[in-house]
Amino acid sequence: MDQNDLKPINDLLPQTQAKKPVDPKEIFNEFLLKKRIFKDKEILSSSFVPDVILHRDEEIQKLSSVLAPSLLLERVSNVLIYGFSGTGKSLVTRYVAHNLASTAMEKEVDVMPLYINCRLENNITEYRLISNLCTIFGIKAPVSGLSVSILYKKLISVIDSKERVVIIILDEIEKLIQHSGDEILYSLLRMNELLKKSKLSIIGISNNTNLKSLLDQRVKSSLSPVEIVFRPYNAVEIADILSIRARDAFFENALGEGVIQKCAALAAQENGDIRKALNLLRVAGEIAQQSGDSMIKEEHLDKANEILEQNITEEMVKSMTKQAKCVLYSLIAASKAKKMGKVYSGEVYEYYFKYADRFGLKKLTFRRVSDLIADMDYNSLIMSKIRSNGRYGRTRELELAFSNTLLLRIENILLSDLNQI
Length: 421
Ligand SMILES: Nc1ncnc2c1ncn2[C@@H]1O[C@H](COP(=O)(O)OP(=O)(O)OP(=O)(O)O)[C@@H](O)[C@H]1O
Ligand SMILES: [Mg+2]
Prior knowledge:
This protein has 17 helices and eight strands. With 421 residues, it is of the alpha/beta class. The strands form two sheets. A five-stranded parallel sheet has the order 2-3-4-1-5, with helices on both faces. A three-stranded antiparallel sheet has the order 6-8-7. A hairpin with a 5-residue loop joins β7 (382-388) and β8.
C-alpha cells in the first residue's frame, strides 16, 4: 500500500496557496453588518401614495368645492389643472376623486370619477381611449374594427341607463392632444348634449401652462373650464414633505444634518419638483450605501445631483432628431478643433456639411441648422452669445454646456445613433 493512501484527503490536495472559496454566508453577514440606510426604499418612489398631503389645502379645497354638486347629481364644471412637474397635481386630483367616490357611496348616489392617464400607450388614440371607457362600463369593445362613432353610441346608451354623474379625469392631457388632436375633447363634451338622465364632466391635468393655446376655439368654449393652478412648492414646503417621506424611508440617524434642507433647496430651484427631490434623496442614499457609510451627507447629495443631471442631459440628447444629433456632433467637432474654445455657427455649419454626408442625411440650409442650434441653447445643452462683429454684422458665439466626462458619453450616444440606419 502506498503511504499516500492513508493520508486524509485534504493532505493529498496540492498545498499551494489555495484561494479561499467564496462563501455566500459571509457576503450576507457582511451586508447585514454594513450600516444600513434604507428602511423602505419604495416610499421614495414617485408612485408611492403618501398618507398626508401637505401644503395643498387651497387646491384640495377648490377642486372639492367644484366637484361637490355632483353629490346632488348636478353637472359640475369642467376643470383644467395646471402646474409644473412634481407639484402634486396627479396626487391631489386622485385624492379628491377617491374621497368623492367614497362619499358618493356612503350617500348612495351614483357619482363615478374615472382616472385615465393619457401618457399610457393604450389611452393615446381616440379609439383606444373610448374603448377603454366602454370596458369600464361593461361594454365589450373589440381592439379594432368598429367605428369610433359606434363606440360613442354604445357608451352613451349605457351611461344614460341611469341617473348619474360621470367625471372623466384626463391626466397628462397634452399627450392626448398632441397625439390625437383636440377633436376627442369636443366629442366627449358633445356626449353631454345626448345624455338625458346622466351628466358628464372633464378634468384635464397638464404641466403645460400653455395648454389652452393648443385648443381650438370651439373646444375651448364648450369646455369653458374652471382653472386651478398648482403653484410650485417653496424650499420650506418641500423640506416638510420630504421629512415625512424620509422618516419612513430611512433608518433613524441615516440622514445627516442639513441634507433634507439642501435637497429641498435644490428642488426649489427646479420649480418645486417633489419628484426630483425624492429621486435626489434616493440616489444619495444609494451612493452612501455603496460607499459603506452609515449616514447620507451633503457630499452624497452633490454626487446624486450630478448623476441625475447627467441622466437628464443624456435622455435629452437621445430624444433629439437625427438632424439635430448631427448638428450637435458637428458642434462638438468644431469645439474640439478649437481646444474646446468658443465656435461660430458658420464653423459648425462647415462640419455639418461634411457629417451630414457621412451619416447619409439630407443637408439642411444654414438657417435650419441655426434654428436647431437655437433649440439646443433653449434646452441648455449649449450656451450662446450674440456678438457684434463690427462691419461684419452680428455672429453667434457657441460653447458646449456640459462637463468633459459627460462630453465623452454624449459623443458616444450621438455616434451610435447617427451610425444606425
Ligand atoms: N403635498 C405633497 N405631500 C406629499 N407628497 C407629495 C405632495 N405633492 C407631491 N407629492 C409627491 O411628489 C410626487 C410627484 O407628485 P405628482 O405625481 O402629483 O406630481 P404632478 O404635479 O402630477 O407632476 P407631473 O406634471 O410631472 O405629472 C409624488 O410622489 C407625490 O406623492
Ligand atoms: Mg402627474
